[in-house]
Write a structure and sequence with these properties.
9-stranded mixed sheet, alpha/beta, globular, UDP-N-acetylmuramoyl-L-alanine:D-glutamate ligase, about 325 residues, 10 helices
Length: about 325
């Protein structure tokens, strides 16, 4: 089953701090990135079938992203170029523990240029796993297109997966984010969020209530990451946690995307449509097996710099599994 990622591909300008005779200096190195694009690449590098539905700028960065996606095995069948938008840039600063801070340059960004005309019938010709982030509902134009697209994907039997991936700078009005994200989340099949995001959106006291509300509205599976702490999972029948792997962290830029990509890679190999996904989720062991693989993908990603470059292939996962088995 194809994992089709809807949303932005952009350029991460990643901080590289070095020491010289005068003290700390900082420069920035170009990396291909953007959460939906990262997930598509994660699936492709693992050997899966993935694509990106979105737009790039007709500039050197857009051409670089398009070429890199294709070289890494991501289908660009539904990846277009904006006639007026520019490829977005994200300057990513890292602290000593590898945690990120972002400065986005997204005025007139190409990925916001999606329109109803881009919803060609072939997008909905077969069931797919549709992975998207809250950035796809961050502006009025994107909200309209995304709502239309999700409705048609749903009618086609696709599985809808929302990674909240909160980026306040993407929003035309960040005050709308909590309500609009919650409303959209209630209409999908699977949600991935970080605990930090849920606290920022709804407050610590309301995190569990928000999760329960989504489950009550029909969401089949919710995954909540929390840095190096165990991943929490929730279904309408059960809940639990799964431990993350201890690893040396240098850059968390692609951590969540690697996790999502790994999870969806395993899911795509075992389901054919929404009905089979519902059956799959009912088996507790399926969730645990996918979490094991996804946490391995995340562990490899945080040990490297960048996004596309940091994402694991199957051989690296096998090597990590063999190493853990031998300990």
């Amino acid at each position: 089953m194809q994992v089709l990622c809807m949303g932005e591909a952009l350029i991460d300008m990643l901080s590289t701090k070095e020491l010289d005779a005068t003290g700390a200096t900082e420069s920035f190195k170009k990396f291909a990135g953007g959460a939906p694009a990262n997930v598509a690449v994660a699936v492709a590098k693992l050997g899966g079938n993935s694509g990106l539905f979105g737009k790039l700028g007709k500039d050197q960065f857009g051409e670089y992203l398009y070429r890199t996606l294709a070289e890494l095995g991501v289908s660009t069948r539904f990846t277009g170029f904006s006639e007026q938008g520019k490829t977005a840039l994200a300057f990513v600063g890292l602290d000593d523990s590898g945690e990120r801070s972002f400065d986005f340059y997204i005025d007139n960004a190409a990925h916001t240029d999606l329109s109803e005309a881009d919803l060609e019938p072939s997008l909905f010709a077969e069931p797919r796993i549709i992975s998207f982030c809250s950035g796809s509902i961050s502006t009025p134009g994107l909200r309209k297109v995304t709502e239309n697209a999700l409705s048609q994907f749903r009618d086609a039997g696709s599985i809808l997966c929302l990674d909240i991936n909160l980026r306040p700078a993407f929003w035309d009005d960040a005050a709308l984010a909590p309500a609009l994200i919650s409303e959209t989340a209630a209409k999908v099949d699977m949600i991935k969020a970080s605990h930090e995001e849920l606290v920022e959106l709804y407050g610590e006291a309301n995190v569990e209530a928000s999760i329960q509300s989504w489950l009550d509205n029909g969401v089949s599976l919710i995954l909540v990451t929390d840095g190096a702490n165990p991943v929490a999972f929730y279904t309408r029948d059960t809940d639990g946690t799964y431990p993350t792997l201890k690893t040396s962290v240098v850059d968390t830029t692609a951590a969540g995307d690697a996790f999502v990509g790994g999870f969806l890679f395993t899911l795509a190999a075992e389901v054919q449509d929404k009905a089979s996904f519902t059956h799959w989720v009912a088996n507790f062991e399926n969730i645990l097996a996918s979490l094991r693989f996804a946490t391995q993908c995340g562990a490899i990603a945080v040990s490297r710099y960048g996004a596309f470059d940091a994402l694991a292939n199957k051989q690296q996962i096998e090597a990590l599994s063999n190493k853990k088995a031998g300990e």
